[in-house]
Specification:
This protein has 25 helices and four strands. By secondary structure, the chain is mostly helical. The strands form two sheets. It has a two-stranded antiparallel ribbon. It has a two-stranded antiparallel sheet with strand order 3-4. Strand 1 and strand 2 form a beta hairpin. Helix 13 packs antiparallel against helix 14, helix 13 runs parallel beside helix 16 and helix 14 packs antiparallel against helix 16. It is elongated, with a radius of gyration of 34 Å. It starts with 6 loop residues before the first helix and ends in a 5-residue tail after the last helix. About 25% of the residues are buried. The structure holds zinc ion (2 copies). One zinc ion binds next to loops. InterPro entries: RdDP_mobile_element.
Length: about 500
Amino acid sequence: MCPQYVLPNVIPDRVDCTTALALVYSVAEYCAPVWERSSHTDSIDAQLNQTMRLITGNMRPTPIDWLPYLSNIAPPDLRRKKSTSNLLSKIKANTKLPINTVLEIPPPTRLISRNPAWVADENVDLKEEWRNRWSNLAIANKDLVEDPNTKPPGYNLPRRTWSTLNRIRTSTGRCNYLLNKWNMSPDQNCDCGQIQTMHHILRDCPRRFFQGTLGDIHRCTEEALEAERKLKLFINNSQITHSEHPKYLGIHLDRTLTFKTHLTKLKGKLSSRNNILHKLAGSSWGSDANTLRTSALALIFSTAEYCAPVWEGSCHTKLIDTQLNSTLRIITGVCQPTRINWLPVLAHISPPELRRKEATKKMYQKLLDSPDLEINPILQGSQLLSQNFNISEAWTNSWISSDIPNKNLITSPSVKIPGFSLPRREWVLLNRFRTGQGRCAELMKLWGYTKDPNCACNVPQSMSHILDDCPLYKFNGGISNLHSVTPEALNWLKALPLRL
Ligand SMILES: [Zn+2]
Ligand SMILES: [Zn+2]
């Protein structure tokens, strides 16, 4: 294994070039004057560039000319040139060495492509050469650095800050614009709506721009490192522990108010509560849908929506929504691949996102009604109020604009659908026919569980085949009668010998 791969594990928070020099460079430069002029040195340089990236925390697309400066190790080729020149001057200083007689009248070079060691310059000034090279470079933010031989500021910072600092210096980091360019993100915009380049984050972003200059960041001024500052508070001579994510009234706050920490913790909580709900359900036995729905609202939704108006605008609400979708799946008994638009309708619980909007609107209305509270109005709430937000209307609109199978069964999504008090097995079966997603042979093959997509009647067995076409099982009333759970439909469901 190449020694550099050990580095990320052994390097402590404070990365130093010493480890890299001792572990990687010593090996990479062993006898360098011998092979220095080979045309294959590129493969060594690629490895050394990787080593420097580990030290600086920079990303692969960063211009490589930045790396030697930031890791405070001269460029590999210059180091090799210097070591050859040192060797030559050492040899020439020691006149007793027999090699000197050869060097006085060197043998003729046979191939033009060969550059023997004795043609090399013996007076290489490494610092001067590097300075010249730097002044001729054409890379972004080059002006930050006057002399590449000096150590970059911030060398002693914690790892995370140090690598962020270097990504800002080189203008190459995980901003959405670049992530999108590298095909790692579908969206190139910032949460403020503009294109999120590194420059945007630093200069233009209304949410997180820095008031100083890039030079201030480069020099690691106190203002630039404000986020790293740890509070030192004393009460009765004992120091209060500094917390990055203080909890206030049940909400984990973070520095940029993205609520990522809070929502990640909440997600964990919801996941364990979903497990409890699972125990109540089961796929063919268990509580009826009314009981499950009430338990879900009391046990899971109440937790998931605690203080929702505070974090509703966060871009991490997806963490919560995936958990709530599984809650809805447990209530309705539908399969994982079922389109999520179906879930709130079948469970008769409004979509989580709309419920949060409703809560925000209600809170804003409350604030308006009690002016002596002196709380700054919430922007989101005032927008919802001015748009006259109505939860069932918003839900109906999103239902109408969606494009899902059997959509026509539902005229108004906020109305409770029939069948809530059916036994668990019939309720689950019914929902699987409504959504067209169940354990029928065709879909089981699609999901990779079985090999044969055919029904016992020898045509592909989809959910609609079983319901409408199959000579063995079909129901004469069609999907609409099944949906409204007529007595015939209930009898058919009870008698259906398939496990779907
Ligand atoms: Zn922005
Ligand atoms: Zn069939």
